[in-house]
Design brief:
Length: about 260
């Protein structure tokens, strides 16, 4: 019951904090609208928000798919092919020194103002966290498992598919959780640079028209998308890797017993 009530309690607490800040500061509505005004706009403009939210959600999901696929392929290549790792790893590290947001105008120029440039932004911002997490997981496979597999005559392919990949799944799931959190950033930044649809476009348009309540409503929809994706991936990870949940529960029980 507490697991179900906890999100509602947190949401209620944040809403009360929001309203308290409005009361204490006395900020005008065109600077900081109250939650009642924003929620009213959320319901009144639900069709408009749903239309633009669907575009942003599609960009996020496609960016997740492409980013995860590219990240997984890169991690497998780095883990299994030493010469490629020595050449590609410095390139990956250097690429992170370049702000992804600075590439948004270039991507807009190359790919146009449609969904392609936003999907590319989401893919780029997802790619490195997934690659790094999966590669670390593949590198941290227990050596005892690999030695036993070699003793039994397992091929490198069998070791990869049956030992290293399953052992890397928890790290890969952590990368997916991070990807789900940052994917909306890439999509919305792309929409800010140039678009005619999406929540980012709607927020910019509402801000220019001083419709701050609509801008906050679009921001709430975006936050809801990000939180839903995160918890969906977390739920699927726990379902597909029950042994990880069991080990965490045992560790918590052991820690509570020692205390």
């Amino acid at each position: 019951m507490m697991r179900l009530l906890r999100p509602l309690i947190i949401a209620l607490g944040l809403t009360l904090l929001w309203q308290s800040i409005v009361w204490i500061t006395g900020a005008p509505k065109f600077i900081l609208p109250g939650p009642v005004q924003v929620f009213t706009t959320l319901f009144e403009q639900a069709p408009l928000l749903a239309k633009h939210g669907a575009v942003t959600l599609a960009e996020i999901l496609l960016g997740l798919v492409f980013g995860v696929m590219l990240g997984l392929i890169s991690a497998l290549s780095l883990a299994t092919w030493g010469p490629l790792r020595r050449w590609l790893m410095p390139v990956l590290v250097i690429s992170q020194a370049i702000p992804v947001f600075a590439l948004a105008p270039v991507l807009m120029l190359w790919l146009g103002y449609g969904m392609a440039s936003k999907i590319a932004m989401a893919t780029l911002i997802i790619y490195f966290p997934v690659t790094a997490a999966c590669f670390d997981g593949l590198r941290q496979t227990p050596t005892g498992y690999l030695k036993l597999a070699r003793t039994l005559g397992a091929s490198k392919r069998a070791q990869l598919l049956q030992i290293r990949l399953p052992a890397a799944l928890p790290a890969f799931a952590s990368g997916l959780r991070v990807a789900a959190s940052v994917a909306p950033i890439g999509a919305v930044v792309g929409e800010w640079v140039g678009s005619s649809t999406g929540l980012g476009y709607l927020m910019l348009n509402a801000n220019a028209r001083m419709q701050v309540d609509l801008m906050f409503a679009a921001l709430l929809v975006l936050a809801l998308i990000a939180v839903t994706l995160y918890f969906l991936i977390d739920f699927l990870a726990r379902r597909l890797m029950p042994w990880q949940a069991d080990s965490l529960n045992k560790a918590k029980a052991s820690s509570a017993g020692h205390q």
